[in-house]
Specification:
- This protein is of the alpha/beta class.
- The chain is globular and about 75 Å long.
- Helix 4 packs across helix 10.
- 24% of the residues lie in helices and 19% in strands.
- Strands 4, 10, 11, 12, 13, 16 and 17 form a 7-stranded antiparallel beta sheet that branches. A 5-stranded parallel beta sheet has the order 5-3-2-9-18, with helices on one face.
- The longest helix is centred in the last third of the chain and has 24 residues.
- The mean pLDDT is 94.
- It contains 10 helices and 18 strands.
- It binds flavin-adenine dinucleotide (FAD) and iron/sulfur cluster.
- Iron/sulfur cluster binds next to loops.
Length: 539
């Protein structure tokens, strides 16, 4: 069904047009608003979702009925196919980070130089030190609470903007257990306020960070959009789906973004600007470039190298639950954890394996249950006694994200069999490991299982359950699709995010990354986006 308005499109004139209103776009817009006088228009396909004032109620309904706290957070007919996880389903103002957990570790310096240091993957066109100021800016804008780990494991140019979220009694016990095994751990950096700020509360440890924070302690992009709109520094067009970018056939300059309203009208619009920023996330950014094919650019825009949609990146994990002879009291802030970067900085090694390590308290194996070990129903005092017995002791959850080197055929293509209401083919996504990763996968996963077995044994405990993330058809914290690099034949954008082929087109954040490290990626997506924003502001 094609809903195409026959009326002339509504035309919006601006200086900088940002496509997408996710977390990368929000923090880039804040940077641009402070560092340029240019007019900024942000174009978002979805609607605003649950406002801050309604989040307490949304949390209550989530806890009572399992109801999603996020209203109208997707477009029914705008879907990526081929993967079950992390495929940008949230098309709303603020994007996926309206739902995120707020965990915000930095990559390690090794991530930017895996080729030089370990002979695998690709070096980025800049170093960790080059990104450090933008990491800092991202942390300050979101309000990241953190504790610096040992400098050799966790270098940074300046201290965290906010004191760390407390290592509570449970985590302190687990920290001692890890220390005895010579594993250095510290409070996981999180975009959750440890000190009230800017109308957002201090974290109350109420433990529903994912999916919804009722207090505003956890950063979400709507805070930035609301502030920028109140200061009249941006124009935010909601329910506007950009379907094409038009490029001048001779100069390659982008002249306009065109599309349709996603409301019932389906009305056509166009945005004319001097600068275009594609901040539509790792799926929709390459998708829009591929959709924007024309006679002059038959393979889509920015695609001289043929790499648009290629080298999708991400990581996988091994996760384990360990019973330990400690006394923990679950429920003191289950969503907060310890982190270690010890294994992200392994030094010289004969076979490649780098991973992060996170440790949480857990109630697995300690919950109340209705049947005993023999399968018989438990009632009254017997039920209580069973629970009291099993609640004694401690369960730790440990998880290691290990990095996966992306293959050129880890890719997103247009799927002509799946179209949205306007007749545009939807993205088909498939992840593939580079041969060096595929060859090591089994060994890498067994090494991680062995680490967890050793950790359990050293603490006098046992493994309750172990799992890997293989059931995900995708990978976590997905990135790539418009990789950056210095050579236009082997990359889509340069080291600052500008398309090699189009002088006024920039691709921001996740899609431009050549690899996705082995920890949560969003802080890095934003830092990379802020580096791009600084280049745009310099002109
Ligand atoms: C449940 C959950 C928990 C998570 N927890 C964490 C965590 O703790 N730590 C972490 O680091 N990461 C986490 N993530 C991942 C994190 O949310 C994402 O990495 C991040 O939000 C991606 O931001 P983005 O700016 O790249 O893009 P997106 O959030 O994908 O935003 C892109 C926006 O662009 C809009 N758009 C796309 N195409 C168009 C178009 N053609 N026209 C107009 N608008 C368009 C979309 O509607 C969307 O709003 C989590 C994700 C989920 C789902
Ligand atoms: S613990 Fe509660 S207040 Fe703190 S960030 Fe999570 S949801 Fe928000």
């Amino acid at each position: 069904m094609i809903i195409q308005s026959s009326d002339a499109p509504t035309v919006h004139e601006t200086d900088i047009c940002i496509v997408g209103s996710g977390i990368t776009a929000a923090l880039m817009a804040a940077h641009l608003a402070e560092n340029t006088k240019q007019r900024i228009t942000v174009v978002e396909a979805g609607k605003p979702t649950t406002p801050f004032a309604q989040r307490t109620q949304a949390r209550e309904r989530y806890l009572a009925y399992g109801e999603s706290p996020w209203k109208q957070d997707h477009l029914d007919d705008q879907n990526a196919y081929g993967t079950t996880w992390g495929f940008s389903p949230s098309m709303n103002v603020g994007g996926l980070a309206m739902h995120w957990g707020g965990v915000s570790p930095r990559y390690s310096p090794e991530d930017f130089r895996t080729k030089s240091m370990f002979g695998v993957g690709t070096d980025w066109p800049f170093t960790y030190d080059d990104l450090d100021p933008f990491y800092q800016e991202a942390e300050e804008r979101m309000g990241v609470a953190g504790e610096q780990g040992p400098v050799a494991l966790d270098p940074r140019g300046k201290p965290y903007p906010l004191p760390a979220l407390p290592v509570n009694y449970n985590l302190a016990q687990l920290q001692q257990w890890a220390t005895k095994q010579e594993i250095a751990t510290w409070s996981t950096p999180s975009a959750k306020l440890s000190v009230a700020r800017d109308g957002r509360a201090q974290c109350q440890r109420c433990d529903t960070c994912y999916p919804v924070c009722p207090t505003g302690a956890k950063y979400s992009p709507d805070f930035t959009w609301d502030a920028l709109e109140a200061a009249k520094r941006i124009t935010l067009l909601t329910e506007h789906l950009v379907r094409r970018l038009d490029a001048d056939p001779k100069t390659g300059r982008i002249t306009r973004a065109t599309g349709n309203r996603t409301d019932a009208s389906g009305a056509a619009f166009e945005v004319r600007a001097k600068t275009f920023v594609l901040a539509a996330g790792f799926v929709w950014s390459p998708h829009l470039l591929l959709l924007s094919r024309s006679d002059a650019f038959p393979n889509g825009l920015a695609n001289r190298s043929g790499l648009v949609g290629k080298y999708l990146a991400g990581h996988r994990n091994i996760n384990a639950y360990l019973r330990l002879p400690l006394e923990l009291y679950p429920g003191m802030n289950v969503q907060h954890s310890l982190v270690s970067k010890q294994f992200m900085r392994p030094g010289k090694q004969s076979r490649y394996l780098r991973h992060d390590l996170r440790i949480w308290e857990s109630s697995v194996g300690r919950e109340p249950r209705l049947r005993g070990d023999d399968g018989a129903m438990l009632f009254g005092d017997a039920l209580l006694k069973d629970w009291q017995g099993r609640a004694k002791g401690a369960t730790a959850r440990v998880r290691a994200y290990y990095d996966v080197l992306p293959d050129i055929d880890s890719k997103l293509v247009l799927n002509d069999a799946r179209k949205n209401r306007f007749g545009d083919p939807m993205p088909q996504v498939s992840f593939k490991d580079a041969p060096e990763s595929a060859a090591l996968k089994e060994w890498q996963e067994e090494e991680l299982r062995n680490l967890f077995r050793r950790m359990a044994k050293a603490g006098g405990g046992e493994i309750l359950r172990m799992e890997n993330s293989n059931n995900d058809l995708g990978q976590e914290h997905p990135a790539g699709g418009c990789r950056m690099g210095t050579d236009p034949m082997h990359s889509v954008v340069n080291g600052e995010g500008r398309a090699h082929d189009h002088e006024n087109l920039w691709v921001a954040g996740a899609p431009s990354q050549p690899s996705a490290s082995c920890c949560n990626g969003t802080l890095t997506f934003v830092a990379v986006g802020l580096r791009t924003a600084a280049a745009i502001a310099r002109g």
